[in-house]
Amino acid sequence: MAFQKYFLIAFLGFLSLTSYGQNDTVNLAxxxxxxxxxxxxxxxxxxxxxxxxxxxxxxAPVTNFEDILQQLGGFDLRQRGVFGMQADLSxxxxxxxxxxxxxxxxxxxxxxxxxxxxxxxxxxxxxxKIEVIQGPSGRWFGPNAFSGAINIITxxxxxxxxxxNVSGGQYGLFSAFLAGNYQTGKIRNHTSAxxxxxxxxxxxxxxxxxxxxxxxxxxxNSTTAALQLAYQDRAYGAYGFYTTVYPDQFEHTRSFFSSLxxxxxxxxxxxxxxxxxxxxxxxxxxxxxxxxxxxxxxxxVMGADSAGFRTxxxxxxxxxxxxxxxxxxxxxxGLHFDSKLGKSSAVFSVSNQxxxxxxxxxxxHDTIYSSVMKGGFYNHSAxxxxxxxxxxxxxxxxxxxxxxxxxxxxNWKYGTLWSPGLDFGYFINENLKSFLSVNQAIRIPTFTDxxxxxxxxxxxxxxxxxxxxxxxxxxxxxxxxxxxxxxIFDRMGRDLIDWxxxxxxxxxxxxxxxxxxxxxxxLSAVYDNDNPQxxxxxxxxxxxxxLQSNKSSTGYISAYALDYLRHDFTIFVQNKILKKLSSGWxxxxxxxxxxxxxxxxxxxxxxxxxxxxxxxISYAIKNASLYVQGNNLLNRPYHEMGSVxxxxxxxxxGLQYHLPLx
Length: 662
Prior knowledge:
This protein is mainly β and 662 residues long. Helix content is 6%, strand content 59%. The protein has one domain: Maltoporin, Chain A (Beta Barrel). The chain has a 22-stranded antiparallel beta barrel. The protein has a five-stranded mixed sheet with strand order 3-8-9-6-7. A three-stranded antiparallel sheet has the order 17-18-19, with no helix packed on it. Strand 4 and strand 5 (87-90) form a beta hairpin.
């Protein structure tokens, strides 16, 4: 009952606050959504879509992309490390592998594992807006948009200026972000660099993170072209991240990303993209270094302790870290045009995914040594090429709109798979729109799904893609600067990949045996003030999601518990306190289904209800602002993933400075 009480109080408070600005003239429905193949005004969309603009990002208590999703609601971002060091994203109860992440429409998922999907070099200062499509979206984006998709749209380079953000705080936290916009001839550029580090809030939770991002844009008449380059280096103590039996873990990833795209034509629009991403991953089950395990001959030793595994068959020494290198090459061509039949689009894409590893894939005849990751070597590999064709049509007349299409996927191993879909929209009156959506999607197994092999686990390279059918119905309410969406949905998954066994003494084996039916309710309400100089309330965003899942692995013992967020409520508010003093704060309540294994007591502990309050107060001065931010101000340590304990209150502050250049 406590959760329902807090939710009711917060929602009634939101309704009273939004009534304060009903004379404003901003029409949020005019915001354009570019992620659905054909650019569409938000009011014309027929799906449950959220748009998070840069105005919201600038005032929110966020420091990285992961914070945005965590604090602004609608998602289950399960953090093992703070400040985005390692987090798994879930949309509506899906797994971390069942989402598609895009930057300016370009997929950036890692084929090794979804644990690396959020290894992005972007900071909130690089982002113009974030578009989120909840529900199966395969007919627009191809495979892996199983439970939803996120498109991060970066800021377009404009003018000549510099932005600096420097902060520091508890636990040795230091963060710096420097970005510049500049023009060279007809080419507009944006370049940013960042560093973030901390000593950690507890044993083995220290981290270092470096990033670089660059974008160049050229436009002439109806033709535009853009180049993107990104690099990130992320190293962090991973205490108990993946197992509590050997908790002193460490991980280090490095990623390189580049893309080139063009767009030309007005009545008939052609688009093309080419991208390449390489990600290096080193995982130490037993952390190495001074004060940790050090290699002595063929053994890893820390004091009197030797790294290894005790089994009934004897002691097996630890042989060293896991090393992986993944390469993803994507290319696509798109055609978009308007006619009497509405907006039409056809997009053909091809993707080659390759992995080198010392544990994943098929054995190689030779060993390749890494010049990027210290001590790294690869003696296994795997490769695949996917083809996808997306065909979509959008038509609207008077109060009625319909969107239909299909994704056609082909891979030599899996054959041809279809992801059709159909959406209806109908305006009941000028401000109220109903919608109905039915869509299918698929998810291709990761290389970890196919080849993961360790004591107690048997790989299965013959896994098939997962399949899902999603249905959703709801209404959207538009009134000047208020948009509210409420819907009910049902997602029916089959051939889901799960680790199962028939006997408690047998090994776990990955199989396509599980069926999972997830249904629930989603609510999103947004208010944005159009006059930031006059109103106390600048912006409010409320999100609530209720989930219920039923899992079936008949005749098998399943390894994965149903530990989704049953209740997820978040409210975000931006205030103008005084002329130069403003604040942004988020409050969330999360009730997670299931529990985690406490390795000290060997008992399964139910997940606690989590109450999180984060706030940021800023004071503006000429071309700059001073700010103080506090995370988890209620000072209640909590769990989001397994037995990994996340910290209590964490205070830091800093300076933001903007320098216009001639």
